[in-house]
Design a protein that fits this description.
Keywords: Membrane, Transmembrane, Transmembrane helix. By secondary structure, the protein is an alpha/beta fold. The protein is built from 11 helices and 12 strands.
Length: 309
């Protein structure tokens, strides 16, 4: 190969390499750009070299009826990690949560023991009234599975995993705490949670004799007495604890008249109503009682106004 041929070969190869390096370097800004384009673009190509980008889920659509009283909308949150440090952080802040979102995703996001302990302490210390179970897979972002009360979840889990309650009782007893109350200090709560984690009912450092009931934490020689919250396990252990489906969710379709929407909402029987889009993806949660208390006086005032006129 002569020098001229070599230089031409370098020129041919150089630009694709530069493009690849550039695309990798600016992957995050490009992802933001794609989000602005509606998440439709998933591949960038140049010089016959393509890089696949993760498909971006569409953001939740806003509540479409501004005439619905805003006070009926509940404040909730989704934890970004099920590590116990996340729980320590959540109970250490004063932000009020009415509900907790549990996204089971592909089945390896939540250990069932973490659902239990997160729910117990967030209910006690942050006022969580409802647990919303969703599933993000493929094209769906937080598709609603169902919702229920923390007490119903706790009762259902106790039937299959009675050692959760025993480990919690052991942990509370070590701290001489016999009732969990909102006034519990974050420091004591953290100690109880740590003791719960390390209780012999929950933690093993050698492989247990009944491996199906235990889950190894990564590659460590540590096993937790729990299972992953897969869709199969959810349907087996928690499905019966959910509020009735038709009474606890409402498809928020645009262009429905306010009167009709309110009638349909207050006719639901569940205490909380999940608003979903056309793909049944969770948007937000309404407190039915709060909605009822605000809508009825408004309707009475309108009726009195009509009578006087």
């Amino acid at each position: 190969m002569d020098w001229k041929t070599f230089i031409e070969l370098v020129n041919v190869l150089a630009w694709p390499v530069v493009v690849v390096v550039g695309l990798l370097s600016f992957r995050k800004p490009l992802t933001v750009l794609i989000a602005g384009l509606g998440g439709r673009v998933t591949k960038l190509s140049a010089f016959e070299i393509s890089i696949e980008l993760a498909t971006l889920p569409n953001p939740p659509s806003p509540w479409s009826d501004p005439n619905i009283p805003q006070n009926s909308e509940m404040a909730g949150g989704e934890v970004s990690s099920t590590a116990f440090m996340t729980l320590f952080e959540r109970i250490g802040v004063t932000t009020h949560w009415d509900y907790l979102i549990v996204d089971i995703k592909k089945g390896h996001s939540w250990l069932i023991s973490r659902v239990f302990i997160f729910m117990v302490f967030l209910q006690t210390m942050r006022g969580v009234k409802c647990v919303v179970f969703v599933e993000s897979t493929g094209e769906y972002h937080r598709r609603l599975i169902g919702l229920t009360s923390p007490d119903a979840v706790r009762t259902a889990l106790n039937e299959t995993y009675p050692w959760f309650e025993q480990a919690l009782l052991n942990a509370m007893t070590r701290s001489m705490i016999y009732f969990l109350t909102p006034s519990l200090s974050p420091g004591i709560a953290g100690t109880i949670i740590r003791n719960f984690i390390e209780d012999p009912e929950m933690r093993a450092v050698v492989q247990p004799g009944v491996p199906d009931e235990w889950t190894q934490l990564g590659t460590q020689s540590i096993w937790e007495h729990s299972e992953w919250l897969t869709r199969k396990n959810f349907d087996t252990y928690l499905k019966e604890a959910l509020y009735e489906w038709d009474s606890s969710h409402y498809e928020d379709i645009p262009n429905i008249q306010t009167d009709k929407r309110i009638r349909e909402l207050i006719c639901r029987k569940a205490p909380f109503i999940a608003l979903v889009n056309s793909k049944e993806e969770f948007q937000r949660l309404l407190d039915r009682q709060q909605l009822l208390e605000q809508v009825v006086p408004l309707a009475q005032n309108e009726q009195q106004t009509d009578t006087t006129t």
